[in-house]
Amino acid sequence: MPVRDAFLVFGSPLIEEPEIREVVDCLRSGWISTGPRVGRFEELFREYAGARHARALGSCSAALHLSMLVSGVREGDEVITTPMTFASTANVITHTGAVPVFADVDRETMTIDPEEVRRRLSPKTRAIIPVHFAGRPCDMDPLMAIARERDLVVIEDAAHAIEAVYRGRKVGSIGDLTCFSFYVTKNIITGEGGMVTTDRDDWAERIEMYGLHGLSRGAWRRYSDEGFRHYEVVYPGYKYNMMDIQAAIGIHQLPRIGRYLGRREEIWRRYDEAFRDLPLATPPPPAPDTVHARHLYTVLLDIDRIGRSRDEIQQALHRENIGTGIHFIAVHLHRYYRERYGLRRGDFPNAEFISDRTISLPLSAKLTDRDVEDVIAAMRKVLA
Ligand SMILES: *Cc1c(COP(=O)(O)O)cnc(C)c1O
User: Taking every pair of C-alpha atoms in the chain, what is the biggest distance, in angstroms?
Assistant: First the structure.
């Protein structure tokens, strides 16, 4: 008998009545693509992140891509990032024609090791993309110091880390550009969606323009009552804009971000306490003077003691009706990256160690206490 009857979906979002009503209102208004709700969401987010500008886009991947383009990453440049990330961080580097150069992570924090970044610098290095893995802020001071020394752009991948704070500074106000995701499994959601923050006026303006075909001036206003205006294409841009239907969800999710984080912190503490005697390592506590955004509760299974692979444990949990995630299979182990860049197992030992042992347990504001106890019961049963 599985520990529960209904399957517990990993990363299921909490969607509440106000955003449902707002989406319906948006549909009834007839203005469903980029419009006033996107403007409101950008303004709310800008205030939240403490940045000068926030621009909403269709995804965090789009945000990362445009951040590189506007900050001058060109074909043949090198961009340093972590292998312990979702593939999109590296994929978008290849979209610019630049070469992704990986730097290994710290085995404990699972975030990029600034010393490894230093070892990977070359005359072609143009940018660094640190990833605030699982919501834990990277050690930004040494990374920013390297960047300033070598005149590099720092683009933060904060897909996991909307709420994170590093030494009193909000993530979104530290690097040159910071990219966020509102994909369905993230801390707040718009279904699909992303945001980029920056203090540079010219970059913010170009991101907006590049994200909508490269059309000159607020082209979405073309059909408003301000009267028709011609536009010019000034750059062969992309279709990366956010829709008002998406922003309608975001403007109600964002004000609840603190409440949702509080609930995930509660679940986190319960897991920490419940797993103390199991053959696994729970995530280390956040560094002092930081706020961890608690996006993923990733444990490292002691596969030697357990005598089973991580995949076998994951399948066993699935049979108990508990959905889990793997964050991540190290990017350099994926076929494209092995074949295209000649990378292989052994190149980044810490990322590989994590990649073989990590499993992410459900951690969403939607979970009931009952759900959490089911996850714990299933873990105890499977690991016994
Ligand atoms: C989810 C995720 C992304 C991509 O976000 P999208 O909004 O789906 O494009 C990028 N980086 C990391 C680390 C992610 O987890």
Answer: 71
Tell me how crowded residue 132 is: count the other CB atoms within 10 A of its CB.
25
pTM of this structure: 0.97
**Domain end call among 256, 281, 303:** 256
The string of pLDDT tens digits covering residues 147-180 is: 999 999 999 999 999 999 999 999 999 999 999 9
In the reported structure, the alpha carbon of residue 242 is separated from the centroid of ligand 1 by a whole-number distance in angstroms of 15
Per-residue pLDDT tens over the stretch 90-140 = 999 999 999 999 999 999 999 999 999 999 999 999 999 999 999 999 999
Q: Please tell me whether residues 53 and 127 are part of one structural domain.
A: yes
Ligand 1 in reach of 89 Cβ (< 6 A) = yes
Would 242 be classed as within a structural domain?
Answer: yes
Q: How far apart are CA 122 and CA 139, in angstroms?
A: 21
CB of 362 within 6 A of ligand 1: the answer is no
Transcribe 19-86 into DSSP letters: HHHHHHHHHHHS--SSSHHHHHHHHHHHHHHT-SEEEEES-HHHHHHHHHHHTT--TT-EEEE-SSS-
> How many structural domains are present in the chain?
2
- From 64, 82, 89, 181, mutation site for ligand 1 pocket: most ligand atoms within 8 A of C-beta: 181
The last residue of a domain, from among 193, 225, 256: 256
Does residue 86 have its Cβ closer than 6 Å to ligand 1?
yes
Q: How far apart are CA 249 and CA 235, in angstroms?
A: 30
Output the CA 109–ligand 1 centroid distance in Å: 19
